[in-house]
Amino acid sequence: MTSPHPDLPPQAGEGKGKAFGVYVHWPFCLSKCPYCDFNSHVRHAPVDEERFAKAFAREIETTAARAPGREVSSIFLGGGTPSLMQPKTVGAILDAIARHWRVAPDAEVSLEANPTSVEATRFRGYRSAGVNRVSLGVQALDDASLKALGRLHTAREALDAVAIARTAFDRYSFDLIYARPDQTPQMWADELKLAIAEAAEHLSLYQLTIEEGTPFFGLHAAGKLKTPDEAVARALYDVTQEVCARHGLPSYEISNHARPGAECKHNLVYWRGEEYAGIGPGAHGRLDVDGTRHAIATEKRPEAWLMRVEANGHGVVVDDRLNSEERADEFLLMGLRLAEGIDPERYAVLSGRTLDPGRIAILREQGAITVDANGRLRVTKDGFPVLDAVVADLAA
């Protein structure tokens, strides 16, 4: 387990002003990947981008009225496939955010993109619109795997798109999926070295999970899709940690690797339990309203969301007040994903109770967690593969 990066900003309440993120969900894709359980939709008729842009602006206005006076430290346009949007649509959304909140001069503005040649031609337009970081859904660097994953690009096309991103943006990242069928640790190590040579500063590396309701779920249940067994999956995870650390991209979160200082600021907002607004169909948010943390979610179906916003000014369908225990559990669940871990004192402030010293002692003895001289609690390299169990034990 690596030490936290010395130049990572401190957590909220530890000497720095609070971060505030805005997440914007563009729900449309050209096709639905067989492993994906995200809120994404395929539309064969052209999407009315102008109408959706107006609805995004309206929901931003309504949300800002509930959470006024915030300074936006990060914006993330996710999906779906935001790179299907015209740059002027992205610009209209960013302008709406800037009208209703103050945007910090050094705000990180990320956009998820597919690495196809068509979408790569828009990169300079996105840069002009205000995007300063792009995250590319590469997913694999060999054509057979890309085809099996239902991706519409080739490995060559993906690397060409990465090269274009490199010229258009100071900061860029891309995603890969591992623990794919028939993948060996040596194959993954070779692919990872190639990825690191192209990635520069940041990689998101996700283990393939079989999610209920996806085509892969049915194939897996029928025995037609075989994923690596537990031992091989663990070996692939260990290769991920070792190769990335050796090449200067240690993990700062369970699935994210970066050179020190290049961590995704927006994702740190989530993992550190900060506030963020969720805008668009199926977006989630966490807002502090009148001193209470609210867990907010919007209507998932794009056209239904659109009609709700046009009628009511927002598409919110869930607005739950989190009690102190729920908020503390969420802080624990998210914060322990980070290499920097958590401050147990912050947990105690949120929950009104301290973590059980006995449980901490047992988990330390088992090698699942460490506690440093300042009392900061971190999950170890051996603890990360069983993170859910560690969190459940501590929260009990």
Question: Could you explain the architecture of this structure?
Answer:
The chain is an alpha/beta fold. Helices cover 40% and strands 22% of the residues. It contains 15 helices and 16 strands. Helix 2 (87-100) links the parallel strand 4 (71-79) and strand 5 (102-113). Helix 12 (324-335) packs antiparallel against helix 13.
Short overview:
With 396 residues, this protein is an alpha/beta fold. The chain has helices at residues 49-66, 87-100, 117-120, 123-129, 143-148, 155-168, 185-199, 215-221, 230-246, 265-271, 302-312, 324-335, 344-351, 357-365, 387-395; strands at residues 20-26, 28-29, 41-42, 71-79, 102-113, 133-139, 171-178, 202-207, 251-253, 256-258, 275-279, 284-289, 292-298, 316-321, 369-371, 377-379.
Reported for the largest beta sheet, the result is: 9 strands, mixed
C-alpha Rg (nearest Å) = 21 Å
CA-CA gap between termini: 25 Å
Strand pairing plus helix content: what structural class?
A: alpha/beta
Sequence stretches where pLDDT stays below 50 over 5 or more residues: 1-16
Fold-level CATH name of the largest domain: TIM Barrel
Helical element count? 15
Can you tell me the CATH superfamily of the largest domain?
Aldolase class I
Q: Indicate the multimeric state.
A: single chain
On the 0-100 scale, what is the average pLDDT?
A: 90
Shape: globular
Task: Please tell me the total number of domains.
Answer: 2
The main sheet orders its strands as 9-10-8-7-6-5-4-1-11
Which percent range describes the beta-strand content? 15-25%
